[in-house]
C-alpha cells in the first residue's frame, strides 16, 4: 500500500506538472485528443463488448445503444463545438467601468478525478472523462471494481494509448479510491451511491476541492388514468427493465391513479412479453444482476404475495425475471431503498395532493416521470416537486438529449454534465475587466464629499 500511496502521489504530481506546462489548454490539442479517444474506442469496440458481456451479460446492442453511442456523441459534440464553447465571451460593461471591456474566459481547472459506477461502466466513466478533456484538464479515471472486466478493458485501452501525465485509468476498489482521494485534485466527479457520495465530499473538503456528485434514489413514475396506456406501458417497460433494472434513472416505482389498473397492468404484461418473451431467462437481451450480493438484496425485496408478473429467479445465473408487484404501500420493504433491479412496485392513489406530499416527504429523487394528458396536473407536479430531471410521457430518454443538463438535487446529487454542461462543469469562468486608461473620474476617491455620494446614489440605485 505504501508503494501505491507513493505511486498515486507521483501520478497526480506528474499530471499537475504537465498541466502547468499549458499544453492541454490549446483548443486544437484538446480536439486532437478527443478524436484520438474516439478512434481508440472504436478500434476496440469488440474488446469493450466482450468485457461488459462477461460482467453482466449486456448485449452488444445495449452496449452500443446505452453506453458507447452516448460517449461517441459527447465526443463528436465537443469536437464540433469546442471552439465556440472555449471562446472568450464578451459581456456588457457597467457605467462605472466605462470606457472598458468585460469578458469571461473559460479556463480548465487542472487535474481532475472521475470515479465511475458499475451499472453503465463505460458511459459513467468515459462521458465525464470526455467533458474534462474537452475543458482542457488532465484526468485520472477510476472505474468501478464491481464491473471488473469493463474496468480492465478501459484501463488497457486508455493506458496503452495515452501518457499517464495526461490521461490515466487507475483500477481498484475502496482501498485504492480512499488513497486517491487523499491527493489534491481540482475537481472530483463521482457517480454512485448517496452514502459513498458523502465520503467523497468529506475527503474533497480537506483540499477544498469542488465535487460533482451523480447519485441515486427512488425515482417515482406517476401514471394518470387519462394516460395513453399502451404507450405508457411500452415506455415504462423499456425504461425499467433496461440493463436489468440497474439504471440510476429507472422508474423505481409506479404511482398509479385509481381506476386505471386493469388496463395498465394488461398492457404492462403484454409489453414485457413483447420485449423479453415468455421466457426472459432465455432472452439474449435481458441483462443479469451484477453480483451475488445485489442478487440476494433484490430477491429479499420480492413479496411473493404481491407479485403479479415474474417473481422467479435463478441464483446460479444471477437472473431475476422482470417482476411487477401490486398492492404495494410506502411501508413495504421494497419502498425503503432504491430498488436498482428488475422489480416494479405499483402503489395506487386517488388524490394528487396525497401523491405530491408523499414524494415531497422523501429525499429529492434523481428523476420523476409523469404519464397523462391533463396539463394542469402535470404542471402542478413540475412546479411543486423538486427532482434532478425527468420526462412527461416518457422515461429515461431525457438523459439522451445533450441539450439538457443531467444531474441530481439534494440527496440525488449536485452539479451536472452532458454536452456544453459537461464542459462548464470542468471549467472555471474567469471574469476580466479590461479598462481603458483614457479617463479616471474622481468620484471613488477621497475626500468623500456629499455631491459624490448623491451622484453615486443616482447612478447606482
Ligand atoms: P458505489 O457508491 O458503491 O460505487 C461507486 C464508486 O465508488 C466505485 O468506483 C467504487 O469503487 C467507489 N467506492 C465505493 N465505496 C467507496 C468508499 N468507501 N470510498 C471511496 N470510494 C468508494 O455505487 P454503485 O453501487 O457502483 O452504484 C449504484 C448507485 O449509484 C445507485 O444508487 C445509483 O442510482 C447510483 N448511480 C447514479 C448515477 C447518476 O448518474 N446519477 C448513475 C449510475 C448510478
Total beta strand runs = 18
Structural class: alpha/beta
Overall pLDDT metric: 96
CATH class of the largest domain: Alpha Beta
**Largest sheet, spatial ordering of strands:** 10-13-14-9-8-15-16
Segments where pLDDT lies below 50 for 5+ residues?
none
Bound small-molecule species = nicotinamide-adenine-dinucleotide
**Shape descriptor:** globular
Strand content: 15-25%
Helix coverage percent: 40-55%
CATH topology of the largest domain: Aldehyde Dehydrogenase, Chain A, domain 1
Terminal CA distance:
61 Å
Which keywords apply here?
461 residues, alpha/beta, Aldehyde Dehydrogenase, Chain A, domain 1, Aldehyde Dehydrogenase, Chain A, domain 2, 2 domains, 18 strands, 42% helix, 17% strand, globular, binds nicotinamide-adenine-dinucleotide
In short:
Helix content is 42%, strand content 17%. By secondary structure, it is an alpha/beta fold.
Amino acid at each position: 500500500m505504501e508503494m501505491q500511496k507513493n505511486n498515486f502521489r507521483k501520478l497526480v504530481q506528474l499530471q499537475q506538472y504537465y498541466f502547468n506546462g499549458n499544453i492541454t489548454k490549446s483548443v486544437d490539442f484538446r480536439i486532437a485528443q478527443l478524436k484520438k479517444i474516439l478512434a481508440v474506442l472504436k478500434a476496440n469496440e469488440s474488446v469493450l463488448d466482450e468485457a461488459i458481456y462477461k460482467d453482466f451479460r449486456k448485449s452488444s446492442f445495449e452496449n452500443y445503444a446505452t453506453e458507447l453511442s452516448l460517449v461517441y456523441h459527447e465526443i463528436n459534440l465537443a469536437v464540433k463545438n469546442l471552439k465556440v464553447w472555449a471562446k472568450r465571451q464578451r459581456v456588457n460593461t457597467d457605467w462605472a467601468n466605462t470606457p472598458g471591456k468585460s469578458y469571461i474566459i473559460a479556463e480548465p481547472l487542472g487535474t481532475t478525478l472521475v470515479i465511475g459506477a458499475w451499472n453503465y461502466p463505460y458511459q459513467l466513466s468515459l462521458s465525464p472523462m470526455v467533458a474534462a478533456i474537452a475543458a482542457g484538464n488532465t484526468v485520472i479515471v477510476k472505474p468501478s471494481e464491481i464491473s471488473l472486466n469493463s474496468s480492465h478493458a478501459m484501463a488497457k485501452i486508455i493506458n496503452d494509448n495515452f501518457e499517464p501525465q495526461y490521461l490515466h485509468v487507475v483500477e481498484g476498489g475502496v482501498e485504492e479510491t480512499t488513497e486517491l482521494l487523499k491527493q489534491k485534485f481540482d475537481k472530483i466527479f463521482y457517480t454512485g451511491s448517496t452514502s459513498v457520495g458523502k465520503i467523497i465530499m468529506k475527503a474533497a473538503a480537506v483540499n477544498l476541492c469542488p465535487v460533482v456528485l451523480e447519485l441515486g434514489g427512488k425515482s417515482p413514475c406517476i401514471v394518470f388514468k387519462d394516460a395513453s396506456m399502451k404507450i405508457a406501458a411500452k415506455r415504462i417497460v423499456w425504461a425499467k427493465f433496461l440493463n436489468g433494472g440497474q439504471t440510476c434513472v429507472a422508474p423505481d416505482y409506479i404511482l398509479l391513479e385509481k381506476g386505471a389498473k386493469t388496463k395498465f397492468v394488461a398492457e404492462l404484461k403484454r409489453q414485457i412479453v413483447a420485449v423479453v418473451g415468455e421466457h426472459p431467462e432465455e432472452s439474449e437481451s435481458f441483462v443479469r444482476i451484477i453480483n451475488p450480493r445485489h442478487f440476494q438484496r433484490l430477491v429479499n425485496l420480492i413479496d411473493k404475495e404481491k407479485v403479479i408478473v415474474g417473481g422467479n429467479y435463478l441464483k446460479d445465473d444471477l437472473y431475476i425475471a422482470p417482476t411487477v408487484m401490486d398492492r404495494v404501500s410506502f411501508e413495504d420493504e421494497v419502498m425503503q431503498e432504491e430498488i436498482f433491479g428488475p422489480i416494479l412496485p405499483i402503489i395506487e392513489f386517488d388524490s394528487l395532493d396525497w401523491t405530491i406530499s408523499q414524494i415531497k416527504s422523501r429525499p429529492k429523487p434523481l428523476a420523476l416521470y409523469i404519464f397523462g394528458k391533463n396539463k394542469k396536473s402535470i404542471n402542478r407536479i413540475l412546479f411543486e416537486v423538486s427532482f434532478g430531471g425527468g420526462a412527461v410521457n416518457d422515461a429515461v430518454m431525457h438523459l439522451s438529449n445533450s441539450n439538457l443538463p443531467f444531474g441530481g438535487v439534494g440527496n440525488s446529487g449536485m452539479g451536472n454534465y452532458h454536452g456544453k454542461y459537461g464542459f462548464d462543469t470542468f471549467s472555471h469562468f474567469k471574469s476580466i475587466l479590461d479598462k481603458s486608461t483614457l479617463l479616471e473620474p474622481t468620484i471613488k476617491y477621497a475626500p468623500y464629499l456629499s455631491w459624490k455620494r448623491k451622484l453615486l446614489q443616482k447612478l447606482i440605485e
